[in-house]
Design goal:
Length: 215
């Protein structure tokens, strides 16, 4: 089902940019390296990334279940890193190289270069979720919310559980002043990943604004 977004107006600068990039990699600088669990903690089972599509989906199902059942934040972050690794993987060496160059361009602040590289990835592999996701981030950094929202929609059509894209959607809706939609998006993100950084506090603040305080 297509997402419906409000008509965009002139927007202010991205006030919550730092929070989005540090807490909700979505619209997303996906994690290119995996987080290791503390030495004293038992490592949750990994789901390999180089698998046929059906097996990769089963691996994601397993990891999303583990994410919801994680006993603490450290365990959740390890599972989250495995999910990002699967999302980031592509069987195309060309797409992988272009993604690496796009990330380097983003890190260097060369957003126009990154955008052209990501355009090429999406043209080559339109089914590659993380290319849409990362391009949404570039558009966000350029304050182009309309195109960022369009790319977030492409991510969520392919993977409705993409907590990064849901959190990014919440950030944009909040910046646009649509607190209700922002709250809905943040709640959906937390339903998938209860340990997202900063999002629980955003939900608390927005709940008071949208629904009022309990008497």
């Amino acid at each position: 089902m297509a997402l419906r977004f409000p008509r965009l107006r002139t927007i202010r600068p991205a006030v919550f940019l730092a929070a989005m990039l540090s807490a909700a990699p979505a619209a997303a600088l996906a994690q290119d390296s995996e987080a290791a669990p503390p030495k004293h903690q038992k490592k949750p089972p990994d789901a390999p990334t180089r698998l046929p599509k059906a097996d990769r989906l089963q691996g994601l199902d397993f990891l999303f279940g583990a994410l919801k059942a994680a006993p603490d934040e450290a365990s959740a972050k390890h599972v989250e890193a495995r999910i990002w690794a699967i999302w980031l993987h592509t069987p195309s060496d060309t797409a992988a190289l272009l993604m690496t160059r796009a990330k380097a361009a983003m890190d260097a602040g060369q957003m126009d270069v990154a955008l052209k590289l990501l355009d090429a990835v999406i043209k080559l592999r339109p089914d590659y979720i993380e290319a849409w996701n990362r391009r949404a981030t570039v558009y966000y950094l350029q304050n182009d919310y309309e195109h960022s929202l369009e790319d977030i929609e492409q991510v969520l059509v392919r993977e409705p559980r993409h907590f990064g894209a849901l959190a990014g959607l919440g950030m944009i809706m909040q910046d646009l002043g649509d607190n209700k939609r922002a709250l809905d998006a943040f709640r959906q993100a937390l339903a998938v990943n209860p340990y997202l950084d900063k999002v629980p506090e955003m939900v608390r603040v927005l709940t008071e604004k949208v629904e009022g305080r309990d008497i």
